[in-house]
Amino acid sequence: MSANKDIAAERPKFVLLVAGFGFFALSFVGMGLGPWISLGFSMEPPAEMADANPYVDADGEKTAIGRGREVYINEGCWHCHSQFVRPVANEEFRYGPVSQAWESMYDVPNTFGTRRIGPDLAREAGRRSDDWHYAHLWNPRSTVPRSIMPKYTWMFEKEGETWKPTQKAEDLVAYLQHLGIAFKQEVRAQVWPSRVVTAGSPAISEAHQRRGEELFGLHCVGCHGETGDGQGIAADFLAPSAADLTTRYLPREEVFRVLFMGSEGTAMPSFAELTEKDLWALSSYVHDMGKSVRKPALALATDPVVIARGEVIYREKGCITCHGERGIVPPAIESGYHPAPKHFRDRLYSADYIKHVMQEGRKGTTMVPYRAIEGRELDDLVAYLNSLFATDQYKEEQP
Predict the structure, then answer these.
(1) Using alpha carbons only, how large is the chain's radius of gyration in Å?
(2) CATH number, domain containing residue 179
(3) With contact defined as beta carbons under 8 Å apart, do 374 and 356 qualify?
(4) Long-range pairs for 152-160: beta carbons < 8 A, 24 or more residues apart
(5) Interior CA angle at 79 toward 78 and 83, to 5°?
(6) Are both 71 and 186 inside the same structural domain?
(7) Which of 1, 20, 62, 66 has an alpha carbon 20 to 30 Å from 121's alpha carbon atom?
(8) Is it the case that residue 215 has pLDDT exceeding 60?
(9) Sequence-distant (≥ 6) Cβ neighbours of residue 314 within 8 angstroms
(10) Looking at the DSSP assignment, which residues form a beta bridge with residue 162?
């Protein structure tokens, strides 16, 4: 009888022992073998990336990307920025495709990072322009007004009245623009949304205007300036320069489209992550900055004889090639140039601004100076461009 009791007493210990070994084996398979097997699927790089170490050239010398990586490490950028998109918590939606093991095969030491005081940089390639990065490094508040990132002014030198990036800054930006280069097109499609069509802006209240002013201060003043004149603290670095919002009339719908889509090839990012209500509030505030341009601009486009002469100039001088028939940019031009030429159907410019661009061109774009067009020809061209504005589409403020 006592022997049976001893066996019964030992049985729970045996069960616990077996369970303990069982759970250990299960955890080993689940946490050890499982990740190891799944890692194997992400170890094989694309053919074009297999034999190309981006950090050294054929002679073993450091490339700009390699030197930039050293700057990134030495300046402690990895303390605040991670470089690892995890397959959890919608990170793929926020940052881009999930990180693959082969991406870091040349990274010794790795720069995965563990904190995200700033955004993850694993998919930074092509997300923002070089000049945006230079302005951000020189003074982060110039592009992200409430950023807590410190200034890196020692990476720049002053030439006359402007600041220019040193080799160290150029190398660092080259490295940033390399991060996630294999996924650049996927990220581009996510960062620069397709053209959006709006059905009309909602009724705008005083609350919208106050919210719009607040959002402008949060996101826009670094580039566009506090008054919208394009003279923000980032002005030295931007090419093309930030738009002077006081020289153009932008309907709320057009502002909404620009805010949602961004302007690829410029420092203007997409603000698609803002709520629709916030986008309309900000659109209304920006719209108001150029309201004074509308009536004078349309007043120049009333004489059909002048408009007809302007159309001849528009065609003969080649404006139609980029800006298209009736001021609607051809799809091939719009998708092939970054930044793309503007549609004259969707916006109005002041006469002084158009004349300035015709004389000086637009640095950072395909718009070159046309100084041969002057005098009455230039006035006629201004009238024609203003006549292209689709007043039937934007009826909110008919003069």
Answers:
(1) 28
(2) 1.10.760.10
(3) no
(4) 152/75
(5) 35
(6) yes
(7) 62
(8) yes
(9) 320, 323, 381, 384, 385
(10) 159
Token readout for 118 is 């700033």
CB 198 within 8 A of CB 253: yes
Question: Are 290 and 247 spatial neighbours (Cβ–Cβ below 8 Å)?
Answer: yes
Rounded Cα gap, residues 153 and 133, in angstroms: 13
Q: Is residue 267 within 8 Å of 129, Cβ to Cβ?
A: yes
**C-alpha to C-alpha distance for 344 and 326, rounded to whole angstroms:** 8
- 198 domain residue, yes or no: no
Q: What are the phi and psi torsion angles at 376 (to 5°)? A: -65, -35
Nearest CA to 350 among 249, 251, 258, 254?
A: 249
Domain containing 232: what range? 206-289
* DSSP output for 343-365: PTTS-EE-HHHHHHHHHH--TTS
For 212, other C-beta atoms within 10 Å of its C-beta total: 23
* Cβ proximity of 310 and 327 under 8 Å: no
Displacement of CA 157 from its chain's centroid (Å)? 26
Q: Which of 289, 313, 328 is the last residue of a domain?
A: 289
Q: What is the pLDDT of residues 154-202, one digit of tens each?
A: 999 988 888 899 999 999 999 999 999 999 988 888 887 777 777 778 8
pTM over 0.90: no
CB 377 within 8 A of CB 312: no
